[in-house]
User: Fold this.
Amino acid sequence: MSKENNTMVQTNRPIAIKATSVKKRYRLGQIGGGTLTGDLQSWWARVRGKEDPNTKIGTDQRLVGQTFMALNGIDLTVYQGEALGIIGGNGAGKSTFLKLLSRVTAPTEGEIDINGRITSMLEVGTGFHGEMTGRENVYLNGAILGMTKAEIDAKMEEIIEFSEVREFIDTPVKRYSSGMYVKLAFSVAAHLDSEIMIMDEVLAVGDMAFQRKCLERMRRAAKDEGRTVLYVSHNMNTIRQLCDRCIVLDKGKIIFSGGVEEAIELYMGKAIDCPKRVDLAKAARPHHKCKDGIKLTAAEIVNADEWRIKVGDKLRYNITVKATKDMENVCFKTRVMTADENSVSLFLAPNLITCKAGEEIEIPLEADTSQLVPGKYLLTPALYDINEFGEMMFFDHVHASIGLEVETKLGFCSNMKWDQRWWGNIKLPDIVDLRK
Amino acid sequence: MASEIKKQTYHTHITSKHRMLDLNLKEVWRYRDLILLFTKRTFVLTYKQTVLGPAWIFLNPFITSLIYTFVFGGIAGIATDGVPQILFYLCSNAIWLLFSTSVTNNAHAFTANANVFGKVYFPRLTIPISNMLSSIIQFGIQMILVLAFLAFYLFKGEVHPNWSAWALIPFALLHIGVMGLGFGIIISSLTTKYRDLAILVTFGVQLWMYITPIVYPLSAMGGGIMEMIMMFNPVTAPVELLRYAILGQGVVRLDYYLISIAVTLVVAVLGVMLFNKVEKTFMDTV
Assistant:
């Protein structure tokens, strides 16, 4: 892997995309009445100063009168050869921004300058028609994306090879499986000679091997061929693998621009705060069916003021449990997840609790977290016992209820920045030189 | 430095401002292969998984012409200026189909392609142009049938085409095609917001046929005021020119023809301007 150290943006590179205070306004409710009658009705209502019978008014704070700012002043500079990830919740304005860039619709205000040709893959297989064969669709799709017939002819072999659907290339695509369809469509787009590629979650279908192949192709496009890649996804792992810079959109504005991990933490962990004592009694428990008997009521860190420790430190904390029945040998565990809820590992404390009905007891614990690398984590504490089939039976399970931040310290990892993208979340002990 | 040159070549500036005459025909030309592929698609798709396949291109107008011959020629007894009736109707029908498909297909240009337009940019004008081309090619194919009948009646000596006027046929075809395109994209631009027009257009084009000398020759109007009104219908002049050339029957007058050209130009320019304005934001309203 040679991609580790590319998180820094080099500002002396030529600019690929420059957006200046771009805004996009949408009208709420139905656009017009949809019919002439409807619009006349609305117009007549306005003339008389009455409420428009054809508009619905929402409650979003971005509302200005009866309009909605999908993008509310985007300033962004993307340099050539950059792989930029765009993340944000639904309705943050990601797709709208890509639509503006790919000229599907025009901005309401602001300007965008683009140096280079753009391939937008807001959807794979745009213009694919089920009745036409794979080959015919490659021609049509390629032409839609801006290739000439001669260019497509020259790349046809390569496209078919990449798509892995050679035997079916002369079969109508309506007979394709959805995976084959996406593979072929992606192949066409991937072989365009454009300087800028825009992708909106197009890798959702296709088997794992093909997804990896696509990401690798995109990364090569950015790193080796100097192309610019803009990538929108809700899959943080693909963002991690592909991008070297990331922006976070929220309510039509860029709220963060910088490193990928920081962006993901910001986006996923908006709710992660780390107070000293976490009250678990009232926390939501949406996931598991649990048996009655004993519940967690609180978790409190002891060796810090908040759930924030230095890398290499052990974690000392108290949990408080309340039993409603007599309990014996109840086990405790804590699952550790990254901010985007990928599992890191698990701490177990077998046969921890034995108590009487009605009792509420506090148990001091120590967990060896010294191998966790710096970053934000979510902890899921749970109480369980094991039934006769060796299955875990939960008494209580409070998903992602505790935030834990591990801070870096001087000398950690020889002062290199730990790159979670490639190195994971656990730093195993250094390799031992047996000659010593 | 190669990238510097490239950068210069493909610079795009996106702004909210819109210039009325920013047609960017150069870009349309760059996408000419797409126009041809769209045209091809129209034909390939229409006749895929049909038993008779392209034979439908002949069968459809042939049956229509038979019915016209029976209804208008037989029952209503409209004379066709000495031209054999089936030939007259076949020819007229082919001409009208050229115009009407050009209008109706383009009238749905935005709504029918909304899913593609919403995902990727290419010059939107490629769609109407390819629709027009399809209509003209369809006319060409139907002409084979017309020519077959023409040869038959020529052999029998019942028809006398004006061979010298045949040179004008391509011009008249383009004229009708562009006019259809103009009307079509005006309607299409308006239908992105008001769907009413889309319903109206099929019906309207049907009515339009009856105020155009298609199922009867212009001479059946008997000169006078009716013929003059007829002549102000911009489709009439090129229709008459085509029939004058092919069948040797028709009223061709330069003054009316010039009016028709003027109307066509106005409609086409207006249409393209409107289309160009709508294409920028139609995804938000369609």
